[in-house]
Amino acid sequence: MGAMFGRREVLAGLGATGLGAIWPLAAPAAAERVVRTLDARVVRRRLLGRDVALWLYGGRLPGPPLVLREGQTLELRFTNRLPEPTNLHFHGLRIPPTGRADNIFLEIPPGESFTYEWTAPVGEAGTYWYHPHRHGLIATQMWRGLAGGLVVLGPHELDPQSPLARADDRLVVLRDVALAGAELAPHAPRDWHKGKEGPWLLANGRVAPVLRARSRLVRLRLVNAANARSLRLARADGRPLVLAALDGHLLAAPQEVEELLLVPAQRADLLLAMTPTERVKLIARHYNRGVPTPRLHSSRVLEILPPPADAPAVPLPRVLAGHRPPPGPVMRRRTLTLAMFTLNGRPYRPGRVDIRAQAGTVERWRLVNVGTMDHSFHLHTWFFRPVSRNGRPWPFDCRLDTVNLRPGEVVEIDIPFVRETGRTVYHCHIAEHGDRGMMGTIEVGPALPWSAPVSTDAICAFPRRR
Ligand code: C2O
Ligand code: CU
Ligand code: CU
Fold it and tell me: Hey, what domains does the chain have and what are their CATH numbers?
């Protein structure tokens, strides 16, 4: 062997094998429980023409998709076959942050197993993902390959009358990668400051894969599983992107945007109306996040070939989630500053509770990036409704769990602390920054009967409509 693979050869070789990298989603049978096993292990896998040692879930890059129906309980027996401790985080899901659910304070030692168990919340179907969350080891474990998509299906996908049910539904986990010789490039000291990036963009483990649409309507569930790379996505033909959901939550109605900045950990569901003749190419434009970023060797993210000529027409839905009332009156305000390796001036300390909140209340947080590069804010368990950026109202109603701030920016968010209680974290989702201290602990206590003027039902009014 010992063959050298230049950029052109890699692209040509991958183009030929790219078909099939992006499988359509399959719904699990309608049962109360879904029982699955998953492990994290060290394997050698073909990547960019080399056999590279990676750390993978189920031996796959990305990890196998976890697909559930709303209301289904997942029983996931997880085994750690890595040489160091790890655990799982189910990013974006409003499930308990405690016990056997989304408990990131657990530590599963090498060689041991742990069974996670939680129920996919009803009314919150969407695109999520899973990745390791052992503090201090998150960035290197993710960089080595540990991440996978997680999809909850709901009435929009399962009711055969819904246009979304007739869409060609594809999960696409994006990340970048860099090799040094025949192995994955290790973290260099400066990577902890910048966040680790590489010049190759992978969509489901391949460079610029090609897929054949099976329907005139394609739904792309994009997950940015990169450690640090922000993706500025657009169509190569210059036409607008049609957004259906952000961070797992359907928008009121499809929303057209010229381009989309998808920062690490964010998800976006795109709807593409295909014609029988045109191919659609998705590209990633260069984005300046305040630190030098290696340019991508290819701006192509993926390419979609037109569906068969006899594929039935599927209308673009006019309404998705429909209008949702704002979460309710704000009862408490806080300011949180983000800077290199600190939140509110303090680095993370395990065990210290930085914020105490109460279930059944709505808080408005003012996030301020006082640093010199982009940072993102991510809160576990409770999603939020962005209110404004730099004093200007948010352009359209949405729910997010991760939001980006450029240097100097101020973003206000409303967080309804609905239902779940317990202790978890919020942090910058540039994985290296979180590991180095841009993380804090929040503890949400139960609603107090004498001080809970907002009922959780009112906060939780997310009508489900087509
Ligand atoms: Cu993807 Cu603490 O999160
Ligand atoms: Cu998370
Ligand atoms: Cu950061």
Answer: 7-305 (2.60.40.420), 332-459 (2.60.40.420)
